[in-house]
Design a protein that fits this description.
The structure is a single chain. By secondary structure, the chain is α+β, with helices and mostly antiparallel strands. It has a domain of about 70 residues. It contains 3 helices and 3 strands; from the N terminus they run H-E-E-H-E-H.
């Protein structure tokens, strides 16, 4: 089941994943969906010619605050790209309201 080069941690994760898929149980913690808006730029015009906005959806533990998720994503790096977190929303947390969301209003 495990390869010779697998670490103990990856073996534990693989066993947990197999157990979850067999038992049908979900994650051992509550999860929440977060929507992030990022500004992407690059000094290499072949990669990105102009500034771009990227909308990214992520699932994290529900105990994470939108501010913590933004800080986590802001702390990442990618070769040839620079990014800035512009906004973080979470429909599952009380700070977000569909009615106050301008995109939702346009869709109505």
């Amino acid at each position: 089941m495990f390869t010779k080069n697998s670490s103990d941690k990856s073996q534990i994760f693989a066993a947990w994943r197999e157990d979850v898929s067999v038992s049908g149980a979900g994650a051992p913690f509550a999860v929440s969906f977060y929507s992030l808006r990022l500004r992407l730029t690059s000094e290499d015009p072949i990669i990105i010619k102009t500034r771009r906005t990227l909308h990214l959806g992520l699932c994290f533990p529900r105990s994470c605050t939108p501010r913590a998720v933004g800080a986590l994503v802001a702390g990442t790096s990618a070769p040839l790209l620079r990014h800035a977190v512009l906004a973080v929303r979470s429909p599952d947390h009380a700070a977000y309201s569909y009615i106050q969301d301008n995109t939702f209003r346009v869709l109505l």
